[in-house]
């Protein structure tokens, strides 16, 4: 079925018939020069046996009559895979010859590069590899970032940061102020092999406001924009959203691509049982936890969030540990988990500390904490149960700190949990660790990294809440994206009929009923037709007793220009 992709890319098609609303027919068409530009795609829902995937040339798979069935609860999706995490163009698949001689602006997170040790496969190493790859490809590089490492006042000076980058990259980095000096430096031949570093963006109010004029100034003379600052994607900034409107290509760097792949793994249900260990507090995370409850087989609560869930179960909890603003969210979450049969694991006991005896710790059952004692860590019975339950999992998400807000020391429970998770990751268990404290604890207890790690927890919570990652959505869509044509057509060797402007697909289904020796492909641009098209094909088996339309596939695309 590869010739279907050849149709989109303008290659030779040996056998193809093209219908447009049943009016025109072209036999043995040899060359079709249909070219679609980068575009911004939207989301559709997916059903039980089919995935609505964002794919080649901004196409979205809408329906396949023979495979459709109503989605079950476990596999229902609210569009987050395709809407918030679309398939975007990356440095990895961007034509290298297109980089030669081009001015490429790279938006990176210098905080990562400046403070982190450059271990292999670390975020800093991936950011550096993006810069070196673009430089080696022959691009003229301009670096753009914001940083505020106040522990070292020298890092606030542009010249000093440029020197550090020069040392890390082993390339000459020239500090440049935004304005006429920036444009002049781009034009000067003597700097053609050097890398320019613009001023710290944190000092410009226009950056946070996504000012269009400021974005235009940033992109002056720039051809291609590369975003490698994934942790800023949930923000609408001039340097990650506004700037894309002034560059002919906007793509993702190596670090951005890697973090996006790790984020996708959180919502995949490819391995079961899938449990999530949730730490920290519950405030503001209700929507995210409800989404996790729809995905996971179990939720393990530690940290301050555990008390809110215990209170929702009706268990006795000291009122000073209860967040009044989180009571309703905890109640709704518990009801949703019960309705879906999601197992909830709560602490059975705690290590507690008395303010009057700071050197003395004592174990209390979870439902009998004496006044004056504050929980600082989970107890041994809790750890034993958690280890017993999690040892049976094939996939685990650890998000948030295990210790409690009243604890001023490293949690011993977190260390033991990290050791256990490391051992599980060696035994075919997929592990995703989210949050700075969780990542540091895991790295400190493991001999080498065996988990997918996302240090910035805020962007993960925003994603789980269903918020759009604007910095990601501003990038160009990737192509080509391969479809599993064998799953779409019973016989991929049959001639292909393409209906451009297929609407609700009625013409195609009627043709498929008449000509069972052909395969049919419908293309429809109007997104408003999606709902009607979906309803039509869900009802199609009622009207067609035979599986006569198993050869019908309908695609939709949206694009910004031809």
UniProtKB/TrEMBL annotation:
Instruction: Give the record's keywords alphabetically.
Output: ATP-binding, Kinase, Magnesium, Methyltransferase, Nucleotide-binding, S-adenosyl-L-methionine, Transferase, tRNA processing
Cofactor(s) listed in the protein's UniProt record: Mg(2+)
Q: What is its EC number?
A: 2.7.2.3
Q: Name one Pfam family in it.
A: Methyltransf_4
InterPro entries linked: Phosphoglycerate_kinase, Phosphoglycerate_kinase_N, Phosphoglycerate_kinase_sf, SAM-dependent_MTases_sf, tRNA_(Gua-N-7)_MeTrfase_Trmb
- Catalyzed reactions per annotation: (2R)-3-phosphoglycerate + ATP = (2R)-3-phospho-glyceroyl phosphate + ADP; guanosine(46) in tRNA + S-adenosyl-L-methionine = N(7)-methylguanosine(46) in tRNA + S-adenosyl-L-homocysteine
**Keyword Lipid metabolism part of the UniProt annotation:** no
The record's annotation in SUPFAM superfamilies points to: Phosphoglycerate kinase, S-adenosyl-L-methionine-dependent methyltransferases
* Family indicated by similarity: Belongs to the phosphoglycerate kinase family.
What the entry lists under PANTHER family is as follows: PHOSPHOGLYCERATE KINASE
| Subunit details | Monomer.
| Protein name as annotated | Phosphoglycerate kinase
Q: Which gene encodes it?
A: LOC107031747
């Amino acid at each position: 079925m590869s010739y279907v992709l050849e149709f989109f890319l303008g290659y030779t098609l040996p056998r193809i018939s093209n219908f447009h609303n049943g009016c025109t027919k072209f036999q043995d068409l040899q060359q079709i020069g249909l070219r679609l530009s980068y575009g911004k795609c939207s989301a559709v829902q997916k059903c039980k046996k089919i995935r609505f995937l964002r794919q080649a040339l901004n196409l979205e798979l809408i329906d396949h009559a023979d495979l459709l069935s109503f989605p079950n609860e476990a596999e229902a999706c609210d569009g987050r895979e395709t809407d918030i995490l679309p398939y975007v163009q990356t440095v990895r698949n961007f034509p290298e010859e297109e980089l030669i001689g081009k001015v490429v602006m790279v938006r990176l997170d210098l905080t990562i590069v400046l403070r982190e040790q450059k271990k292999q496969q670390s975020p800093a190493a991936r950011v550096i590899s993006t810069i070196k790859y673009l430089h080696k490809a022959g691009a003229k590089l301009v670096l753009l970032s914001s940083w505020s490492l106040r522990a070292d006042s020298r890092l606030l000076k542009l010249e000093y940061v440029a020197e550090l980058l020069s040392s890390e990259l082993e390339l000459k980095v020239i500090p440049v102020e935004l304005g006429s000096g920036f444009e002049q430096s781009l034009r000067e031949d003597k700097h053609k092999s050097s890398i320019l570093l613009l001023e710290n963006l944190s000092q410009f109010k226009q950056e946070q406001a996504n000012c269009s004029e400021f974005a235009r100034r940033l992109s002056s003379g720039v051809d291609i924009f590369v975003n490698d600052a994934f942790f800023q994607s949930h923000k609408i900034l001039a340097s990650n959203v506004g700037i894309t409107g002034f560059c002919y290509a906007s793509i993702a760097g190596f670090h951005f691509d890697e973090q996006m792949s790790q984020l996708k793994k959180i919502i995949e249900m490819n391995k079961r049982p899938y449990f999530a260990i949730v730490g920290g507090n519950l405030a503001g995370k209700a929507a995210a936890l409800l989404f996790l409850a729809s995905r996971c087989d179990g939720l393990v609560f530690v940290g301050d969030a555990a008390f809110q869930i215990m209170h929702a179960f009706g268990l006795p909890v000291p009122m000073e540990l209860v967040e009044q603003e989180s009571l309703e969210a905890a109640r709704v979450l518990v009801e949703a988990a019960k309705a879906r049969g999601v197992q909830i694991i709560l602490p059975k006991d705690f290590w507690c500390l008395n303010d009057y005896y700071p050197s003395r710790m004592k174990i209390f059952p979870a439902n009998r904490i004496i006044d004056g004692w504050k929980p600082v860590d989970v107890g041994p019975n809790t750890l034993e149960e958690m280890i017993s339950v999690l040892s049976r999992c094939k996939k685990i998400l650890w998000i948030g700190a295990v210790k409690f807000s009243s604890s001023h020391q490293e949690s011993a429970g977190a260390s033991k949990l990290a050791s256990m998770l490391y051992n599980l990751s060696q035994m075919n268990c997929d592990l995703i660790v989210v949050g700075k404290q969780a990542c540091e604890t895991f790295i400190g207890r493991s001999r080498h990294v065996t988990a997918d790690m996302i240090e910035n927890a805020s962007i993960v919570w925003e994603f789980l809440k269903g918020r759009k990652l604007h910095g990601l959505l501003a990038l160009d869509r990737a192509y080509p994206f391969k479809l599993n044509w064998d799953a779409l057509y019973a016989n991929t060797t049959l001639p292909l009929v393409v209906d451009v402007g297929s609407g609700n697909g009625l013409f195609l289904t009627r043709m498929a009923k008449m000509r069972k020796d052909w395969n049919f492909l419908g293309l429809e641009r109007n997104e408003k037709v999606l709902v009607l098209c979906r309803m039509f094909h869900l009802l199609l088996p009622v009207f067609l007793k035979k599986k006569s339309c198993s050869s019908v596939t309908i695609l939709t695309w949206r694009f910004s220009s031809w």
